Amino acid sequence: MKTIVVLGVGLAGAPLIRQIMRTTVLKSKDYKMIVVSPTTHFHWPIAMPRVVVPGQMPDEKIMYPLEPTFREYPKDKFEFVLGSASSLDPDGNTVTVALDDGTSRDVSYDTLFIATGSSAKDEMPWKLVGTAANTFDRIHALQKQVESADTVVVAGGGLTGAETAGEIGYQYGKNRKKQVYFIYNNELPLSPAVMDSVRKQTKLELERMNVKLMPKTTVTKATIQGKDTILQLRHADGTTKTLTTQAYLPTTGMTPNTSFVPTKMLDSNGYVKQTSFLRAEGYKNIFVVGDAGNLEDNRALAADGQAGHLIKVLPGYFDGGSLAEYKVNTKPMYGITLGQSKGTGQMGSFKVFSFLIWLLKGRFLGTDKAPGVAAGKMTMSATFEK
Fold first, then answer.
1. Which of 112, 163, 230, 253 places its Cα 20 to 30 Å from the Cα of 292?
2. What is the DSSP string of 211-253?
3. Contact partners, residue 284, CB within 8 Å, separation at least 6
4. FAD/NAD(P)-binding domain: from which residue to which, for each copy (predicted)?
5. How many other C-beta atoms are found inside a 10 Å radius of the C-beta of residue 352?
6. pLDDT (tens digit, 0 to 9) for every residue of the chain, 386 residues total?
7. Model's pTM, two decimal places?
8. H helices then E strands: how many in the chain?
9. Cα(73)–Cα(33) distance, integer angstroms
10. Which domains does the chain have, with CATH numbers?
11. Contact at 8 Å (CB) between 123 and 89?
């Protein structure tokens, strides 16, 4: 019997697991699947900017237990291993797993899927923080800090930072209940890949919520003193200053969860070198999907698109057919929610109206789709089961 091993149960992994089980494993006596994950729960990262605001979203909207889905599968065809991949031998077709109980296990595979995703820096719960319990603890601690703070600081000018500053500004800034600061490197929020008109709209909406913007500024050091955090700041002109906060929320980038992968398979930034067929370079039986790969930026839309492509083409592949190439979407697409009533974004070279961003994303931040994705019945853009 051939073994399919999937590492990770996130935005890309969860739909892949269920659809491979349905279309291949359960229909053939030749296959079984082993899933490896450090967590017992699926985490919905898209909603996290609103989750850190106390009282806005319950735990069950962002973390979904895997057991109800996995128990549907026969034990001789499916196994869930609670642990993290610690090393990979791609030539020996073996991955070593550090188990939750402190021991380790070697898992052999015929086909491997690396869907381990990424982690936020500073153990922020923008992504899963190790286990489900650790993630819950981190979320609750941040909520308490934000609730009791007089000053809240969001640092990092990307999508997560802008949306988090918007959520906190909406709740506390516009009514001046708290001082809210947003620190970012560039002249405008968001990266230059986003159109200037969208970046300027983001700046305007945040200013309307009384968020104090600090452009061209970086946090060089954060020191905890009792309930306060003292931030050392440096402006682009070389000047420095300090800022005291009781709730510091850095959103300064992601690290791919690929420490178990041999260095020869990684690029200079630690991402798995990924072909347009969504394979690891040099290995036809290793697929890479989502944040762990270097083919596209590590955004939810990329993970969604890659998972959707593989779900379509893998049944033919496992039946011995050829593998269709994945077409990277080169059209820029961004949807930025700014509080619970405003937003901005772009589709290609067109700016998207605020109402559409609110309608498509801002109302629920995807939590209306999260249960289906967690159960593997759909991706964000396609439904596979009724």
1. 163
2. EEEETTEEEEEEEEETTEEEEEEEETTS-EEEEEESEEEE---
3. none
4. 3-292
5. 19
6. 999 999 999 999 999 999 999 999 999 999 999 999 999 999 999 999 999 999 999 999 999 999 999 999 999 999 999 999 999 999 999 999 999 888 999 999 999 999 999 999 999 999 999 999 999 999 999 999 999 999 999 999 999 999 999 999 999 999 999 999 999 999 999 998 899 999 999 999 999 999 999 999 999 999 999 999 999 999 999 999 999 999 999 998 899 999 999 999 999 999 999 999 999 999 999 999 999 999 998 678 899 999 999 999 999 999 999 999 999 988 889 999 999 999 999 999 999 999 999 999 999 999 999 999 999 999 998 898 75
7. 0.95
8. 9, 21
9. 10
10. 2-122+254-329 (3.50.50.60)
11. no
Token pair belonging to 158: 């990307």
At 324, list the tokens: 């269709």
Place of tokens 């981190």: 138
Token couple for 207: 């200013």
Query: Amino acid identity of 303?
Result: A
